[in-house]
Amino acid sequence: MNRGSRNSGHSDANGRRGGVNLPALRGHNEALVLDLLRGAGPVGLGRTELAARTGLTPQAVSKITARLGADGLVAEAGRAASTGGKPRTLLRLVPDARHAVGVHLDRDVLRAVRVDLAGCVVADSGGPLDFGAGPEVAVEAVVRAVARLGDPYGPPLLGVGVAAPGPLDHRAGVMGRVTGFPSWKGFPLRGVLEGRLGLPVLLDKDTNAGAAAAAGAWLRATWPDAGSDADVAAVAPVAAGAGAAAASADVGAVAGGGLAGGVPHTCVYLHVGTGLGAGLWLGGGVYRGARSAAGEFGHQVLLLDGPPCRCGARGCVEVLCLEAVARGDLPGAARIVGEAAANLVALLDVDRVLLGGRVVASAPDVFVAGVGAVLAARALDPARPVVALAGAGVAEGAAEMALTSLFGRAG
To answer: Measuring CA to CA, how many Å separate 325 from each of 27, 150, 301, 307, 359?
Structure first.
C-alpha cells in the first residue's frame, strides 16, 4: 500500500492539510493521520482530534487507525482525562515500527545514522572519506555504512537519505559541479545507490538536510513527556486541545518527514564546516529553488577584490571565514558569518538563524554570540531573529528525508 501519496487533499486558511473521503486517497489519508500522530509525540491524539484536524469523518478515522494498528504503526497511548463523558482513548505513533538511514557525505568524512519514526538515532557509524577520490569510492563507502547499521532482526528500513555537497539536482538525483570536485558533475548518485542497496534513496544538499534536522530537533523538544499513565491523563487534554490546534497551523514539510506543532515557520540553517552553505526553511518547508540551487550562502561576496575563492570569485564569505578559522581567529570567523547572515535575514525576514557544522561544534558559544552580536547591530527591526545551535546533525536530516514515503510529504 502506498502511504506516500502526494499533492492530494486540501489545505485550510492556516495551512493545515486536510483529508479527502475517497477510497482512492486511502494512502494519502493514512499518511496524514500518521503525520499528525508524529507531531503529537508520545502523548498522542484522540480519534476526535484526528477527525477535526483532517476533515475526515470519525468513521473514516476509525478505519484508518485500525489499519495502521494492524500494521504495527499505531498503538494506544492511554486515556485522556474525562470531561464528563467516557474518557477518550489516545493513539500514538509507534516509533520503532520502521527505521530509516541517513548518510552525510562530507568532503573528508562520512557519517551515517539509523533513526526510528520519531527521528531519534538508534545507531550510528562514521569514518574518513576522500570525496575527491571520485563517485565510485563514495558509493562503496555508503554501501558499507548502511550494511554496518543494518539489523536483519530489526524493523524494516523505509529507505536511505543521502546528503552531499552541492550543487546537485534533487529531483533527478544527479550531482552537479561540486566546487573543487569537477569529477562529480553528472553522476547519478541516487540511481546508483538504489541499485546497490535495493532500497529507495533520496538525495539532497547537505544544507537542506541540516535544515530538516534542525526542524526535527525543534519538534522533539516541544513534545510533552508522556511519563506514566497518570501523566498521560493529565497532559493529554492540553496536547490534544486548543493549544495543539493552534500549533498545528505551523505544520510543515521537513524534506520528507512531516512535522507538526512548534516548528518555526521561517528559519535558515547555516552550516560551517569544510565549506559554508545555508538551508532555507521558508513557509513551513525546505526551499530549494527551481533548480535545487538555493542556499549557496558561502559564495556571496563580502569583500570586493578580496582573496580568491575556489568557486572562481573573490572575497566570498566562505574564503574569508575559512581563512579566519585557519589562523585560529574563531571570533573573527563568527563575525564574518554574522555579516553574511545579516544580509540573508534582511532579505528573507526569518524567525531563527540556526548554526551547525564541525567548525561551529568546535566553539558553539563563540559562534552563537558572534553571529548574534552582528545581527543585533544590524537589525532593522527590534524583533530580530533568535540565534541558536541547530540541535541535530546533517545525517539526521538525511534520515528525515527518507521518512517521506510514510508521512506523505514532498521530499
So the answer is: 49, 37, 18, 15, 8
Residue found by looking up cell 545507531 in the block: 123
For residue 311, what is its C-alpha cell? 568557486
Give ∠ CA 331-336-342 in degrees, rounded to 5. Answer: 120
Indicate whether 240 pLDDT > 80.
no
Cβ-contact 95, 114 below 8 angstroms: no
Q: Please report the pLDDT score of residue 222 as a whole number.
A: 66
Is 260 within 8 Å of 227 (Cβ atoms)? no
pTM of the full structure: 0.79
SS3 175: strand
Confidence band of 293 (pLDDT split at 50, 70, 90): confident
Under DSSP, is residue 111 helix (H, G, I), strand (E, B) or coil? strand
Buried b (16+ CB within 10 A) or exposed e, 275-295: bbbbbbbbebbbbbeeebebb
Residues 127-155, mean pLDDT to the nearest whole number: 94
C-alpha distances (whole Å) from 225 to each of 121, 222, 375 are 18, 9, 34
Angstrom distance (rounded) from CA 170 to CA 190: 9
**φ/ψ (deg, to 5) at 144:** -65, -40
| 398, three cell numbers | 538525511
Our CA dihedral for 259, 104, 349, 12, rounded to 10 degrees, sits at -20
Report how far Cα 227 is from the mean position of its chain's Cα atoms.
26
A 10 A CB-CB count for 300 gives 17
Residue 75: burial class (beta carbons within 10 Å; 0-12, 13-18, 19+) = middle
What does the pLDDT look like over 335-373, one tens digit per residue? 999 999 999 999 998 888 999 999 999 999 999 999 999
